[in-house]
Design brief:
It contains 14 helices and five strands. The chain has helices at about 5-15, 40-45, 50-60, 65-75, 80-90, 100-105, 110-115, 135-140, 150-155, 160-165, 170-185, 190-200, 205-210, 260-270; strands spanning about 120-125, 130-135, 220-225, 230-240, 250-255. Strands 2-1-5-4-3 form a five-stranded antiparallel sheet. Strand 1 (about 120-125) and strand 2 form a beta hairpin. About 35% of the residues are buried.
């Protein structure tokens, strides 16, 4: 076992020992516990990974965690910024690949375009379908998923996905096919390979779809959301590729003019306004 593995495991054990179950939103308190803090299985649940995967990571038997997994574990352990950066380094990852720097990765033209769609849900996706940046309406639309901004992970691990997306199964299938297409286009992209390894580990449904070896693009699509604040929202999405930033996409979802969905987006925009 390498020194890096020992250090990572030691840091994870110490970090979970400092978190009480109640502080992490878990019921049951501390009665019947032999040691302080969270159990391995509880960290795994909070991070959205399998208990076996997390155990191997803590024991140093898993050598190559993805940035997405380390991000999820850091949030599960409620690590502050400095501790998250340290966690990334112990895992052999560049901290700048973490979620706090996603906006820095977006091509400037995409950031400018996001501001030109005040009445639509617009967001920029990276090759692994991380939401790199979003306008206020898109952020409000995705708010049921909390801090999670990787769409494949949302679709296959988040408990709210099946409720929010009415075409959940179709969306999961098309997303996996598009992810496989990107895996072929960008074979050296560690974000994609790490995400595929992670979801193959924790989701039999993802693994089955991935093994079908089908590919497809994220093109024009009709999507229906059921948002907890405003209810049903119907949007037609257009997808635009960025020539100067291979793998980055701009997705823009627009409602039918004069529809209830347009009114719902207007309300979401008002909720997103400061003050």
């Amino acid at each position: 076992m390498t020194g890096r593995g020992n250090e990572l495991g030691g840091f994870l054990r110490a970090s979970r020992a400092r978190i009480e179950p109640g502080d992490a939103g878990l019921a049951g308190g501390v009665s019947g516990r032999r040691v302080r803090g969270l159990r391995r299985e509880e960290v795994a649940v909070l991070a959205g990974v399998s208990a076996d995967y997390y155990a191997r990571l803590e024991q140093g038997r898993e050598r190559n965690p993805s940035a997405q997994v380390i991000d999820a574990i850091g949030r599960a352990l409620r690590l502050p910024a400095d501790a998250r950066e340290h966690l990334y380094r112990l895992a052999g990852l560049n901290p700048r690949s973490g979620p706090d720097s996603r906006r820095d990765l977006v091509h400037p033209s995409l950031l400018r375009l996001l501001e030109t769609f005040p009445g639509a849900a617009a967001y920029a996706l990276g090759p692994a379908f991380d939401v790199l940046a979003a306008n206020p309406i898109a952020n409000a639309l995705l708010s049921p998923f909390g801090d999670e901004r990787n769409m494949p992970r949302v679709l296959f691990t988040h408990p709210e996905a099946k409720t929010v997306f009415t075409d959940w199964e179709l969306l999961r299938r098309s997303t996996v096919y598009a992810l496989r297409l990107n895996a072929g286009r960008f074979p050296d992209n560690t974000g994609i390979t790490g995400l595929v390894a992670e979801l193959s580990e924790v989701s039999p449904e993802f693994r089955a779809l991935w093994d079908q070896n089908n590919v497809g693009s994220l093109t024009r699509a009709f999507k229906v959301f059921v948002h907890p604040e405003v209810g049903r929202i119907e949007l037609t999405y257009q997808t635009f590729e960025v020539v100067d930033a291979p793998g980055q996409l701009l997705l823009v979802g627009t409602p039918e003019p004069g529809s209830r969905s347009e009114q719902a987006l207007t309300y979401l925009a008002s909720m997103a306004e400061p003050g």
